Amino acid sequence: xxxxxxxxxxxxxxxxxxxxxxxxxxxxxxxxxxxxxxxxxxxxxxxxxxxxxxxxxxxxxxxxxxxxxxxxxxxxxxxxx
Length: 81
Fold this sequence. Notes:
Shape: elongated
Helix content: under 10%
Strand content: 25-35%
Strand order of the largest sheet: 2-1-5
């Protein structure tokens, strides 16, 4: 089951790292509201170090995608017209 951060739409109470199946819902008992998935948690930053980020080059003229061997390699110039 995936883990999600949930927020109550009524009182803005946040529950972090809750295991929740895709078909289930969770009720916040003090408010009797259905909890919603919080896609960006303000309480903590979900950051990835620049060395761990994936890079994909896309050329809009040709529609080609490319993945460089390293993520600190500069992107090549676009293809000429």
